[in-house]
Design goal:
globular; six-stranded mixed beta sheet; 151 residues; Rossmann fold; alpha/beta; 15% strand; 5 helices
């Protein structure tokens, strides 16, 4: 059975992940360096890692496997998950794929450089209800595909 790994520190769709996972009876790992409140449920694993910039990412990358699903905004983590045969979704419903991850990494690096020089200020756009709805649909389709592959 596939499992779901959530980069949980700043994830705005934890409740949505848990709803979909409960419906399909999937183990879900909420990985954080602290600060998330425990969620009820026998299939919910709260993983608290040491504080550090990439501690949660490293834990997820070490434990995720083929057919599993990661929920993260972190592009390098998504790349690591894809390398292991897992799927990766952004909280807004966009899927990272083998075809798109290279461009996503390059764009990330370009934008970081532009922010450092002051040419671009600000961050990503606000998370919306439409993003949440799109995420729910994408997660459901992704879980169903992962389940078909494991059966």
């Amino acid at each position: 059975m596939p499992e779901i790994y959530v980069d949980a520190d700043a994830c705005p769709v934890k409740d949505e992940v848990l709803r979909v996972a409960a419906r399909h009876k999937l183990v879900t790992h909420l990985v954080s360096d602290g600060g998330i409140r425990p969620r009820a449920g026998p299939l919910v694993q709260i993983v608290v890692v040491a504080q550090g910039a990439d501690a949660a990412d490293d834990w997820i990358a070490e434990h995720i496997g083929k057919g599993d699903i990661a929920v993260t905004n972190d592009i390098p983590l998504a790349a690591r998950c894809l390398e292991k045969g897992a799927r990766a979704l952004k909280p807004n419903g966009d899927a990272f794929t083998e075809d798109s991850i290279g461009m996503a990494l390059a764009t990330r690096d370009l934008m970081a450089g532009l922010r450092e020089t002051g040419e671009i200020t600000g961050g990503p756009r606000s998370f919306t209800k439409r993003d949440r709805s799109r995420f729910l649909g994408t997660l459901e389709v992704t879980v169903q595909a992962a389940l078909r592959e494991t059966c």
